[in-house]
Fold these 4 entries.
Entry 1:
Amino acid sequence: MAVEHSLELDNGYSTCDDDGHLRRTGTLWSCIAHIITAVIGSGVLSLAWSTAQLGWIAGPVSLLCFAIFTYVSAFLLADCYRSPDSITGTRNCCYIDAVRVNLGKTQSWFCGLLQNLTFYLTGVAYVITTSTCMRAIQRSNCYHREGHEAPCAYGYTVYMLLFGAVQIVTSQIPNFHNMEWLSVIAAIMSFTYSFIGFGLGFAKVIENGEIKGSISGVPTANTADKLWLAFQAVGDIAFAYPYTIILLEIQDTLKSSPPENKTMKKASMISIFIITFFYLCCGCFGYAAFGNLTPGNLLTGFGFYEPYWLIDFANACIVLHLVGGYQIYSQPVFGVVERWLTRKYPTSGFVNNFYTFKLPSLPPLKINLLRISFRTAYVVSTTAIAMIFPYFNQVLGVLGALSFWPLAIYFPVEMYFVQKKIGAWTKQWIVFRIFSFICLLVTIIGLIGSIEGLISAKFS
């Protein structure tokens, strides 16, 4: 065993390298691929339920509105990649760098807090989603063997603990977040289970020979319950759309000619069009297939029973996607905390010493006590919260609403004002202020409905 000293940790946000040594070869089409891969994920599974709560008019209209919100946000943020000039200025290679340059340290601190809270809650959502899918595989096999009326009741706890154990191990893998194969697998898995959900919904509509559902959506006992569910549906849609947190990282892969902001705007328009078409198909065909009985998760709610092997395969794809996805969202948090502790305690062996273990037939393994302790505690805490609140739609709603306005709307609008030197009470200033205020109301509505749903589910 050998001991090494290090004052740098390999995770988290990196500062921007603008000296020309970093090769940026991305094109319009690679940018489109990155955006679609980043956006389409577990959020697509709740869109049929969201459409069912809102009805045949409000549901599709809400999806279209969020598409517009997302495009406007991307349009504004694309111009903030370089400062002070959007074409010739210095690069801001990540979101928090752009906030720091345009809005100052105080706002960047608030942005960082929100980002890391979003990453943390996404980890909680992934624990819930993964356990739900693993449980669905077991139930699917049970229904196939014993019939659709069999109880086939299984809990979530064992699967959450199993997923947590896997994440404790994977969180210790060096440079896990830089493994290209991880993104490739995540992209393939997300497209696979999303297309399966869309295909099953379409087939079910054909089998039924009718389009189910109504203009008002799923009926409830009273108006208050209807409003709560509609608000929660808005939160779920908010979770499915924005990709603001990683937009500048994607833009940083582009070649500088043509200008990156022009390429990003065009890529965003094409990507959001494709994503919206896909989301409308998943949400509308799911609702058309099941009507008032539309499940919260299209692939685990057992509107579909057969072919059982296809249901199993789709849920297995979700599990594989989220095993890596959990680390993609957790590694930045690890980096922020560990770098802060490294700066605060530069002489601490617990924080900075790495112990190298050499096992037969395996590459050397570097162990750091801080990493083992903090990352294990992090995984345990996300797993514990998921066990306390194992409610898929409600948690997605809270997460989507909590991050939508501040990260997807407020910061891009404010940075755009600074970047373009837009004065107060000008026509453009008024338009974007109204836009920001409307999105704030959407966030408040979604957050209230999702929190109410979370509390009701917990104590029902």
Note: The longest helix spans residues 105-146.
Entry 2:
Amino acid sequence: MRRRVLAIAILAAALFLGAEAQAVQQGHQTERISGSAGDVLEDNPVGRLKVYVYDLPSKYNKKLLKKDPRCLNHMFAAEIFMHRFLLSSAVRTFNPEEADWFYTPVYTTCDLTPSGLPLPFKSPRMMRSAIELIATNWPYWNRSEGADHFFVTPHDFGACFHYQEEKAIGRGILPLLQRATLVQTFGQKNHVCLKDGSITIPPFAPPQKMQAHLIPPDTPRSIFVYFRGLFYDTSNDPEGGYYARGARASVWENFKNNPLFDISTDHPPTYYEDMQRSVFCLCPLGWAPWSPRLVEAVVFGCIPVIIADDIVLPFADAIPWEEIGVFVAEEDVPKLDSILTSIPTDVILRKQRLLANPSMKQAMLFPQPAQAGDAFHQILNGLARKLPHGDNVFLKPGERVLNWTAGPPGDLKPW
């Protein structure tokens, strides 16, 4: 009985939390993010680096997209939009001799199943073929073995090119990419598939679609905890326990009947509106540590509750994740209710105020056309911060680091 009274009291408080937070936001519109985040988010990389974009045959990119336009809408579409952005960006140079970085536009996630899921089985051969092409026709790859080149590899386990973690780990990162910089969706610390020096980015979430579902900012946040998604993946994990390392199953088993938790496998048409009516949005790991849910939470001002041990978050040097989110260890999921209800109201209001900062939202999005401070510019900032290249980037005459025949036998077949 006492627990029920407590739940009702907290839920009643949440009804007014959105309006109170809005009032606070209106009084602090010019507040800068603490630490270096405000400076980094407002930084302009133009003038500090030049990028040369290889002109590859369309079979590596545009032809794939023409064959299946669904590639534009899935969460791995950052590789497509990054290519489009660079083609018209002020950092692009047509003179490779003055380039700081070289970009190879290969769409590795545009081989879709009938249900729209990308399978990266052809990706290693396609990437190897593209690298052989640029190494044959331009001198710049060979002088550094790709150390001044970057690639966008946004699939679940990046350049390991497999959708199952165990097999991805067994494959490892494509050997030819060992010296290159990878721009990939956020991963996991000390993971085989997260290369040192990678630039971690958010998955793609459609900005126009989210914009179309905005509701008045003073709408009360009447939902305390919100989540829509799978708790069990019975088709790929029939015995249970492996999917999300059991964290999602634990959420369901412990809180399916808790009045503070609005959780379900249903994905209603009001999904975006519901997030804007919620105080906390659960962002648990799935097969990989990340999903577009984190982007949606930030854009809609819902405090992300990140449940993914050792996650590497996007643009961690630009976004103060510790200040805007709540981190819960996977083993502590059964205590989620007590963890969230114990957070002081002033802390919640501060997190909401920081989330309301337009720069925070902008940094998570890939808008068309690009806008100042967006995810494109955060990627460029990451590349600019890696300059100037060190003495170890360019190889001595005759020196070779990478083995062109290294990798699983299937990767060596012609593409």
Note: The two ends are 66 Å apart (CA to CA).
Entry 3:
Amino acid sequence: MSCQCILLLLLVAGAAAVEVQRPRGVSLSKRQFYEDGKPFTCLDGSKTIPFDRVNDDYCDCQDASDEPGTAACPNGNFHCTNAGFRPVFIPSSRVNDGICDCCDTTDEYNSGAICQNTCKELGYKERESLLKLAEITKEGFLLKQQLIQEAMRGAKLEEVRSGKGDLETKVEALRTVKEAAEQPEREAKERHLKAWEDQKAAIRMEKDKARMVQVFLELDEDSDGFVSLADLLSHPELDPDSDGLFTEAEAQGLLGGLDRVDTFGFESVWNNIKDKYASLQPSVAPGEAPQEEVPEPASDNDSETYPEDDVPEEEEEEEDEDDDDYEEDYKVDGFTLSCKRKCVGTQKARDEFNEAEKALREVDDQIRNIEKEISFDFGTESEFTYMYNQCYEMPTSEYVYKLCPFNRVTQKPKFGGSETSLGSWGKWAGPEDNIYSVMKYEHGTGCWQGPNRATTVSLICGTETAVTSTSEPSRCEYLMEFTTPAACPEPPSPDSLYPPVHTEL
């Protein structure tokens, strides 16, 4: 019911009553068709009869229009004037049936039923109710205006985009500062890596030489200072082609075409056999600790650091005599480096850049969220924007229903159990003249051997935002009533609410 109709009804009790003569059961809007003393033509045009046959308790017209005030026609309707309340139509079969259907008792004029006219009381109660509804509508509409002002979606997006441009400029400037500050650090790290690699190479070379000397002594079984063909042939694993037959010619090939070599000539032989040679002696003597492998450099996840002795002397910097400078160890990519106080500036530049880059990522996320948000239809003036990313619950004796506008509707057992989808956001589904009065949520969890669940949400004007009722009128089809200020219409102007009104009598 519109506000105009509501407030029009409020004026009925105080309006001047003017009696308009017409046959019993005829509404004021059809009075023109019933003129006393003139023949009556059925409203469907099928027949014309004398006027004295109107309400004679005999049905002459097929459309029952000649018996508006009796029960003669099974398809007739009786008009209750109900002065002081609301006029209504009732089936003619209820006329003079002993039950008062009209609050003004006019339907029981000849039944002998004892009825009281309750129209004024009913009208008073309805007017009280309608006054409250009018106040709610007025207050709700004011809240709706606030919601519209708060929406401001387009301006919000442009503001964030503008801020992103400033942040991008700041990030690039800080990136330049950071990279310049990190340059000495990168160079120091490269020097450390090179020194460490050189040290490892030297250690490996020394170990290889020691191993070569050991193998020479093992092969020189007669201790004559030479390794001969016979010495090599005693080690079949040195067969170059691994065919199971180690010949003198193959052994001589390993010796560089010679019959034997001394310690100096053995170096080239060692390069040919070291990958295959198997010592016949125990590699670790009793009581001797095994030889340690060359340690690997610290990785990104390794907490070990280089020993100070590993750093070449030329890399050590002289201490600055300035009291503000001091040595400080810090870790970069798993390597611990030392630097003066200027390293604090490097870390500061890095931190500032990281903070700006993080802020830029957050702005990008914010823009994506806003762009997703404005893709929804939030009403003609964005009045429904405030519901986005919100959820509203309503508990019943068995379930807790949750409505998340523009997202989903769910149902969860009150005393434990999984959540069931009653539909995801589909579309606005109100009538053409008020499309934003109904929401449709579709493609919910499928019912057992039935359709997917779906929910229709009716939006009602109210000062609070809440789910007020839920029902399942048919299997897997749910109905909800949802109050919100965004659904409140604009109240009519006072001048349009006070036309002259006459009570039907």
Note: The mean pLDDT is 80.
Entry 4:
Amino acid sequence: MNINDMEIVLSLMQKAGYEEIVDVPEKAEVIFINTCAIRDNAEQKVWQRLNYFWFLKRHWKSNVATGRSESLHPPKVVVLGCMAERLKDKILDADKMVDVVCGPDAYRDLPRLLEEVDYGQKGINTLLSLEETYADISPVRISKNSVSAFVSIMRGCNNMCSFCIVPFTRGRERSRPVDSIVREVGELWDQGVKEVMLLGQNVNSYNDASGVEKEVQPGNNWELSEGFSSKCKVKSVGLRFADLLDRLSNEYPEMRFRYTSPHPKDFPDELLYLMRDRYNICKMIHLPAQSGSSAVLERMRRRYTREAYMELVHKIRKIIPDVGITSDFICGFCGETEEDHKETINLIKSVGYDMAYMFAYSMREKTHAHRNYVDDVPENIKQRRLTEMIEAFRETTGQFYDIQIGTTQLVLVEGPNKRSPDTELIGKSDRGHRVIFNIEPVPDRENNFTRRNPTAGDFVEVQVLRSSRASLYGQALGITRLSSFYKTAKDEAVAS
């Protein structure tokens, strides 16, 4: 999300006349630092960077004289994003470190805020919006010639989980109109992008009600995953996430689609069957659990039980048998007992995940937990529980890589493998696994079977020969198109 936000900022700045983007902060006259407030560790990294930028600004003359800096003026330092909203007063008071503080809904105001600095003022705008989605902005892509890109389809969050700061730093949910998303994806296709990651704090809660003229009753026709509940009031039901995926996958049949980060409550059957039936919607679902204990989940205000989560996992795997499932986990949340922790370990082993993000809990100000709970799990116990979660994950994840051995996977080539750039290429399979294979000429099935080396952006059939817990290794068989690969696989299945 922060990468996509930065691409929006770059577009707005270029329109305001800031044309050149430099490669290092020592050359810059405006330095943006985009921030995250989810965990304390992220904020500490930001303060470290700000100290260095303060040095570039405070000692600009001597830095230029010694060749350390090349900017023509002392750099202006701009803090963007969630931390900007959360700690605006502290940041501005930090010994003149920062010139502008701009929240995630105020990026359009950046040119004016920078002008205020020229007149000796501090620039600040951290107002949250109920409408801002930047739907009319064409982001300036940071990675040129990339084969994949991020597209933000919604902003904000309504769930108010007790541990989470996001609703307070990014505001309430609002979705971009479908047409604006389709337009941006079309622009990316014209630029050679082959895979799009759809983004949102609750991406599958997407609800484009821009074309709805009359309101319906809150929650009416809003189908949740079975066993899940929500206190979010939906005033107008419009086009939902499945509708968006349906249109995108139909209009761009040679483009892959992924999405993150979803909430388990918004996986109606319609969405799961669509994922099963469309070859260009990747068979990978991020399903944040956070905890395996129903008691902890209740304190987290997740609105589901362990049993409901497990039932959803079983349904997903029944409908999409070859799906990869990933997750998020927090250990050491307020009041978590050893028994609660064991239930989380058991859930990790019972479900079996392809990948998981795991963290020790750090309390954030403004959250429900900060107002109502006590952060009562000692840090050493949090770290021990985190280690045990990671070990449990490692015990199970290898099987999901090993079962790929002997199969043929369609891999979107991202570029040379950094460890062996002259001899190996790397890419991702449909399920999101990294696949590494040797650079060698193979038949191009879409060009009279002429032989050539695969390059970034090619879809390549790769036979998997071996695996590790983090990667697959194989041999390239041929270059093909996305639709051709799955049509061939379907024809062979029918013939057998």
Note: The chain has three domains: 1-125, 148-204+239-402, 405-495.
